[in-house]
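Final report, closing paragraph on structural work. Over the funding period we assembled a curated collection of sequence-structure pairs, and we close with a single example.
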Amino acid sequence: MTTTVTGRRPRNRRRILREGVLQAVTIIVGAVVLIPIAFGVLGGFKDNGQLYANPFGLPQPWVPGNYLDALGSTAFWRQATNSLVVAVASTVLVVLVGAMAAYIFARYAFPGREVLFMLFAIGLMFPFAVAILPLFVLLRELNLLDNPLGVILPQAAFGLPITIVILRSFFRSIPAEVEESAVLDGCGPFRFFWRILLPMARPALGTVSVLAVVGSWNNFLLPLIVFNDANWWTLPLGVQQFQSQYSADTARILAYVTLAMLPSLACYAFAERQLISGLTSGIGKD
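Its predicted structure, as stored:
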């Protein structure tokens, strides 16, 4: 009996130590994420003088005008509309095309399948910035500058690798018996994909949709090279209106950035469970 109790104590100590380390890491990661957000939110309630004199303190006095001016600006709502249109169109395109490609990779065997899939997987390691110059030349030749399609199509193309990887893993986790039963009931491949497979894949579809929406909403570099006309600017580009050649209205920029990031934060918060479920649903099945 003494041996059993003695043996339990080291295990309990290791468990407590492990939990303490995990809690400490969680607190540190949370601080790294929350401190910049808090700085931006509070900074939007200051004027530039307060930011320079007391950047990390509470506003004294509070200046809500920075937020009110942004919300009352027609430019802000026009840019928000442009961001919404581009994000929704990019997401629909990348999810639709990615789901069809993932279905083929997951349920059909054909020569070169794994090699072709590997090419898509390699796309995850291909940084967007490397392709910016040839992409600009291509869009100029196709007359897609100052055109929403000049942002929507490249964003969908660069979003396909992660979409296909996640959806393929999920599709392969669905038992073959489900498809066999559907075929026996007279369901063809196309109907099985639309009527049975996609409804079953809602967690994974939700995951790739959230990733596509947030990635598009926060994209700065691609709209920067495509949109020269300010009427087509998205929210990330709207920060430029508070900058001049020699100065920047930092307080207004912080307020504007805070308002611009609220939709993406709300999207993550609303779809948190579905996002985690979609990322973990196909683990060990691929």
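The chain has a mean pLDDT of 84. The CA atoms of residues 159 and 211 lie 9 Å apart. We thank the funder for supporting this effort.
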